[in-house]
Amino acid sequence: MLNLIKTDLNIICRKKGFFVALVLVTAYALFVSLYYAYIQQGFDVSELYHPAILSGLNADVELSYFFCKYYPFIVVMPAAFVMISERKSGMNLFIQSRQGLIKYYISKLVAGFLATLVVFTFPFFLELILNVTIFPLSATKSLTNWETFSPTYFDYATEYFFGNLFLKNVYLYFICSVVLFGVFSGCAAVFCMGISSFNIKFKAFMFLPVYLLLYVTDIIGGYTVFPTNIDIYITAYDSTPNKKFEYYIFLMAVMMIIGVICVFINIRLCNGKYRRTVGE
Amino acid sequence: MNKKKIILILVVIISVINILKCVLSGAAFDGTSYVIEVMGLNFPIFTVYYLSALITDMFPILVFQIIFGIFIYRRYCTGSVYYFCRQNNRKLWFLKEVIKLFAYTLCYFFFYLSVSYIAGMLICTKGTDFSGLREMINVMILFSLYTMLFTLLLNICSIVAGSQSAYLLMFGIQILMTLSMLIFDNENIFEKFVLLFKLNPVANIVLAWHSTGYGDITLPAEKLGVDFTFLFSAIYLAVLLFIAVAVGTVIADKHDIALDNKEEQG
After folding, report:
1. Among the listed ranges A199-203, B169-173, B251-255, which one has the minimum average pLDDT value?
2. How far apart are CA A120 and CA A185, in angstroms?
């Protein structure tokens, strides 16, 4: 099974979609970093922002609002089209006859999850390394413009997910946020791949499921006790009150479960088709 | 599933969402402000929060683009040689497809906006005020022209570069056009670059930003006395659409169908 996952990961990483998504997210992350490097030229170190805070994933960075709007369209790029390509070219029959249906689909889902995780974590880690190189480590200002050690800022920061970790070590907090974001993106990829396992004729329709899901969660957020807009969950350094970490995990679990259920429905349908063909 | 069923399902889903938004907002609207604030896109200031909310509210437009972005392109996928050897004149075929696509766009926006309008008038104004009818028709025209333009561009880019790249590019362009309006938060910059604002297709579909006097909705165009009429927007979007059709006709005619099927690559 491990060899199958390695092979599928290899296949996905050689696809154009993976490359395009990686380039886009990396370009965004590097743009934010270089933009802040440009505007902070000549500033005193007491006026400079903390290196781990200057990230494209920071909710206080204006561009992150627009990255979150573009996110439903990029997240499907690495892995959601793989099964459709193989079905159209007929390769899926060769591979399924050798691996078996269950191993084929499970290895595809795992490889898709891992590939999307890499696409949405690697650029931000690269950005962190770049920031740590460009900006002095003694810079402590935040994009909220509150004084670094003010009690108001501390109260504000406790609203972050893992707020206490942020107060102890900003770098660790940022790494956790990026990994969580990567895991969420992987779950979205699994959700898309599950739906793509059905007989979808055009790859372009795969842009719809994640976009629809995130739009519906955005709409219902106005009428629930806690906010459900996904933008405030995937970004780091967001202090929207009342947001629930359980909701974030619930959404990831729902996407994974739907993806896996779709795949198993497909396996049963395929098995039924083969039995009717063979005449059992 | 045929196109009529797809349009019907889309109309029903999006009308229901719009009606729910109206009912659950609890606000009391009059006819005109209901059309502008709930059905149209009304975000009075160019800040990051409102502009990103504008992109969220473009959901009906983007969903139509996702589904119909392959309307013409699908003929260039599997069996394209078989299909096109039976079309004597590819340019004429392309123009017929454009007209069909425009008809679907008009139907979609007519039905979804009408249902939302009637339900909104009955719920929000208790059926007493139907004054927003002219504004509704304006919204329908602007939305149809804009959606038709970008759906056609999606089809054309899909023919040239494949559907994945085309979709990413077109949605990226629309988000960038919205993002670029951040600079107009400053009134001095708005006065200096008002032409850039008027030439931005996304700015042209927000009815509330036009200088046609919608009560106390604050508009930079209205405040600064800039002339930004509905007629200008309609004609501008129609001209862009005409250029897109012309370019698309050439591309659809010249594109080589024998050698590659972009849907099976990548």
Report:
1. A199-203
2. 7
Assess contact for A13 and A115: CB atoms under 8 A: yes
How many residue pairs bridge chain A and chain B with CB atoms within 8 Å of each other?
84
Cβ pair B59:A89 closer than 8 A? no
Q: What is the pTM of this model?
A: 0.89
Report which residue type is found at A276.
R
User: Tokens representing B252?
Assistant: 């659809």
Report whether pLDDT(A34) > 50: yes
Structure tokens at B265: 């690559």
Strand partners, A58: A236
Nearest by CB: A70 against B56, B67, B172: B172
DSSP per-residue string spanning A200-241: -S-GGGGGHHHHHHHHHHHHHGGGSSS---THHHHSBS---T
Q: Does residue A40 surpass a pLDDT of 50?
A: yes
- Cβ contact, residue pair B266, A73, below 8 Å: no
The helix/strand/coil state of B216 is: coil
Burial class from Cβ neighbours inside 10 Å (0-12, 13-18, 19+) for residue A63 reads: middle
Report the residue from A62, A74, A85 with minimal CB separation from B264. Answer: A85
Distances, alpha carbon A238 to alpha carbons A226, A256, B200, in Å: 14, 25, 31
- What span, in angstroms and rounded, lies between the C-alpha atoms of A56 and A174? 11
Taking CA A15 as the corner, what is the angle to CA A12 and CA A17, rounded to the nearest 5 degrees?
105
Q: Read off the pLDDT of residues B205-260 as tens digits, 9 standing for 90 and up.
A: 887 777 765 655 556 666 666 777 888 899 999 999 999 999 999 998 888 776 66
Task: Tell me whether B65 touches chain A (CB under 8 Å).
Answer: no
Among B24, B59, B158, whose Cβ lies nearest the Cβ of A223? B24
Nearest CA in chain B to A89: B264
What phi and psi, each to the nearest 5 degrees, are found at residue A102? -65, -45
* Six-digit token string for B74: 């699908």
